[in-house]
Amino acid sequence: MTNRFTFDRRHLIAGAAVLTAAAATRPLRAQERPMIDAATALIVVDVQNDFCPGGSLAVAKGDEVVAVINALGPRFSNIVLTQDWHPAGHSSFASSHPGKKPFELIQMPYGPQVLWPDHCIQGTKGAEFRADLNLPTAQTIIRKGYRLQIDSYSGFIEADRKTPTGLGGYLKERGVTRAVVVGLATDFCVNWTAQDAAKAGLQTLVVEEACRAIDLNGSLDKAWADMAALGVKRVKVGELPG
Ligand code: VGL
Ligand code: ZN
Asked: Of 41, 134, 169, 176, which has the fewest Cβ atoms less than 10 A away?
């Protein structure tokens, strides 16, 4: 006699076959792709309100990275977010240099510095992560650019090229050997973070669709070239390992 249990099982098996057939006829959604190994960290750079449309240093279509990154999140067991986190009156702000305008270049003791509109001021709405960024399993937030006189595009080492944020040591202690870098902006903070990841000895990938650029005087082309010179791989979501 067929008991209810047997019937349910058959029903489930038939259901699974239908699902499998459906999955075979369309591209896999990111969430359905396999987990990426624990030695790989997803580094999500500066997905903050001020870098998205409506923000004070808006990157064109910056908000479009959110859905791509949300879909990647579940595939990583190590996720680090960086957060641009400036005090009011920060030395990277044009408003801190009388007579200077945003996007002009000045010399700082540590080298040339682009001047920016005031952005990502500690504790403000603009400095908050996008409310739709959904990475509940992320374990670490690295804030940067909080020293009044030193900017930090990189999540690893500040613009004086000497002061570490601690991210390199953190990843090393946790056995991370590969970094997947995404976020804003491709040619500034993603670029510097990816370069420093490669210099720290991590195999480094930047996911094209998960980044958007500022592109100031050819900075985007230069960024890709400089990253490539250090062995950083430019990939599409579909080319990720796993
Ligand atoms: C950034 C300019 C100034 C970035 C941060 O996240 O790319 N760009 N501060
Ligand atoms: Zn900044």
From this structure: 169
Domain covering 41-85+129-237, topology: Rossmann fold (3.40.50)
- Return the domain boundaries, the chain: 41-85+129-237
Catalytic residue among 63, 84, 120, 144: 144
SS3 state at 24 = helix
Distance 187 CA to ligand 2 centre (A): 13
| Mutation pick for ligand 1 pocket among 43, 45, 47, 51 (CB with most ligand atoms within 8 Å) | 51
Annotate 108-153 with three-state secondary structure. Answer: ECCEEEECECCCCECCCHHHCECCCCCCCCCCEEEEECCCCCCCCC
Q: In terms of pTM, does the model score above 0.85?
A: yes
Instruction: Quick: pLDDT tens for 136-175.
Output: 999 999 999 999 999 999 999 999 999 999 999 999 999 9
Residue spans of the chain under pLDDT 50: 1-21
Share of the chain above pLDDT 70, in %: 87
- List, chain by chain if needed, residues with CB within 6 Å of any ligand 1 atom: 46, 51, 84, 116, 153, 184-185, 188-189
The answer to whether 149 and 111 have CB atoms below 8 angstroms apart is no
Determine the distance separating the centroid of ligand 1 and the alpha carbon of 83, expressed in angstroms. Answer: 10
Which residue's structure tokens are 């369309």? Answer: 26
